[in-house]
Amino acid sequence: xxxxxxxxxxxxxxxxxxxxxxxxxxxxxxxxxxxxxxxxxxxxxxxxxxxxxxxxxxxxxxxxxxxxxxxxxxxxxxxxxxxxxxxxxxxxxxxxxxxxxxxxxxxxxxxxxxxxxxxxxxxxxxxxxxxxxxxxxxxxxxxxxxxxxxxxxxxxxxxxxxxxxxxxxxxxxxxxxxxxxxxxxxxxxxxxxxxxxxxxxxxxxxxxxxxxxxxxxxxxxxxxxxxxxxxxxxxxxxxxxxxxxxxxxxxxxxxxxxxxxxxxxxxxxxxxxxxxxxxxxxxxxxxxxxxxxxxxxxxxxxxxxxxxxxxxxxxxxxxxxxxxxxxxxxxxxxxxxxxxxxxxxxxxxxxxxxxxxxxxxxxxxxxxxxxxxxxxxxxxxxxxxxxxxxxxxxxxxxxxxxxxxxxxxxxxxxxxxxxxxxxxxxxxxxxxxxxxxxxxxxxxxxxxxxxxxxxxxxxxxxxxxxxxxxxxxxxxxxxxxxxxxxxxxxxxxxxxxxxxxxxxxxxxxxxxxxxxxxxxxxxxxxxxxxxxxxxxxxxxxxxxxxxxxxxxxxxx
Length: 556
Description:
By secondary structure, the chain is α/β, with parallel strands linked by helices. The chain is globular and about 70 Å long. It is 40% helix and 15% strand. The chain has a six-stranded parallel β-sheet, sandwiched between helices. Strands 13-12-14-15-17-16 form a six-stranded parallel β-sheet, sandwiched between helices. A five-stranded parallel β-sheet has the order 8-7-9-10-11, covered by helices on one side. The chain folds into three domains: 5-172, Rossmann fold (3-Layer(aba) Sandwich), CATH 3.40.50; 201-345, 3-Layer(aba) Sandwich (Rossmann fold); 362-555, Rossmann fold (3-Layer(aba) Sandwich), CATH 3.40.50.970. It has 22 helices and 17 strands. α3 (55-69) packs parallel to α5.
């Protein structure tokens, strides 16, 4: 059986239109119903095709490529539960604003809702987690290729229009599904370029009035805040505007921003609070920061349609290019009183001294040592860094000082799933990656390591193994009966991660002290391929006590 000419033409024009719009990568999970799309994708020389043995890992791998490349990636699967396995990554892409073009093959309409095999309801399968959905007509009628090309162009346009995110195109296909040889169908139209919307002058004038009448204004760079050019950072310093940088903002931690605020805000409850916050990006990771700024006026600078105010706190939202809007405000305003910036800078310096003192007195297997020395350990490698949700991102926030690192995290939905695959997707684009994961997060996505083995990728995984879910030791659940707490929340395990060396061809090392860890880290960062360094760190309960001592030390 062969693919009819209308089907080859129909799908071919759709895929060529994706290429015309800027698609360069596709991740394919194998399946029967998606056969013609997979084969015709493979024929396109402009598209780098990656095969995923399972849909969940494959979807997170695509997410990692799209994060690093900052362009849409095609994700393809067959019908049925295969498509359902994309859902967690689609949710993360939606909330972290990553462009994905999700293509799902489907049975034709006459086989829906009649008990046909491998058939589920795929119409609006991902609900509100995609920006746009199209259920294409079943091919076979001449002229539909123009509709298919238009849908492809619109799909990329919607995915790349801010706020960026995933879109879903469902392909109902009839047999036969195997294509016959034929020419590649060309694109039928040019790309649709996303608008680069600028904030309105009236909105900026209103914000300027608040900024100029404020006595203690600050700027917060939250997760996914855009990278600001160096002159803009220096301009903020010249205006005496304190800038607070979340570890997951695109700026990482340049010298012009405050970074130790989570520590000093916990220990200075009476520190005078700002009266105005201008925030770019999502809500800050630090709970202490969010509580400290609760009474201040909040101006959100975000792309149209990107409303992010879970605390219902915003006094004003200005839609448009956030970096351009901030620059416009800086150009129009006058310098603030330098006293507030000086107070905060002094508090940060004191916090850093306290952090150093606590680290010096902590056990040699305390994980905070790694984050504190991050700059000297890996900054010169230029490797992008993926930090897991839960404890790694919080420890990074607390103990890492300042420097220019490209930090990634799946903090859209705050999950620990799919992180191994996401890291390898980043490596697939960037050439290498350092991923700092907890033991549970690493175990959750072990199957993702197959991408590194299959495509000879370079990736360095650090497993911070505190033998379970450490984050719960910092939450009210820790006050429960110890036996009950360990069963329901601590989730201790006896997994021997050294087995990955045999299973996936990994260069594996294990460390018990920081001295052993540092030695192994420097050895492994000097080589290529898949590397895993497991660090058996301080037990969870002791880690919580050290953090508590960090805050108590402030009063000494």
